[in-house]
Amino acid sequence: MWRRDFNLGALVVGLTGLLGLRAASAQNNVISSRGEGMDGDVISTEPRRRRAPSPYANAMNNAVPPPGSAPAATILVVGDSLSAEYGITRGKGWVALLAAKLRAERPDVNVMNASISGDTTAGGRARLPALLNQVRPVMVVIELGGNDALRGLDLTSTQKNLEAMIQASHEVNARVVLVGMQIPPNYGPDYSTQFSVMFHQVAKRNNISLVPFFLKGIADAPDAANQFQPDRIHPREEAHPRMLGNVWPDIKKNLQGH
Fold this sequence. Notes:
By secondary structure, this protein is an alpha/beta fold. The protein has helices spanning 8-18, 23-28, 55-63, 94-105, 121-135, 146-150, 155-171, 189-206, 240-255, and strands at residues 31-32, 43-44, 74-79, 110-113, 139-143, 175-179, 209-211.
């Protein structure tokens, strides 16, 4: 579980980043792969000077390549600020590191990052069908749920959203890696425990790979306070290699046969 450094006050401060209260915040933290060739380049969108009608519309414009332009083997990452390089240098987040690793080890596989700061499982569920239709990925990495917990949402709805995303991914023959999270006990031990167990139950019921705790070795490390940005919610740039290390074994396993 998270160390006591991560108190309720820190969570409230972190809401400005995780919940994406302003459209500009979501816009500036969407990163994507254009899906051109097999380079797997991860690029970041530039801040818009004029407000877009919707952060989700902007994300779709930047994260989704034209139909037929994505390579045959694409990993689609659908996540929140932890995957959208919130507060760190563009190109230094774990998804960008994954793209670089694949260029070296699996140049036939590309990465597309459709993560949005502040996104919830409901938002991911709404966006996923269009992404699947255009990208046709061989694998979908789902890193969502943290913002549901910070909002205190009913976990039954969170679970249904995750399972709908898994089912939609399976319908296009994509394998799924579910990235689990844990929350501090400030929301009550029962809710925190149920939140963690939910990921295990969803993964087991749908026979998919699970990363039990995305921030293992970071949030529970002896020097946890030094692993996070001042908001004590988002990991520092230096922690992202460890985040990739937590996810990579399951991604590698699910790439077998592709």
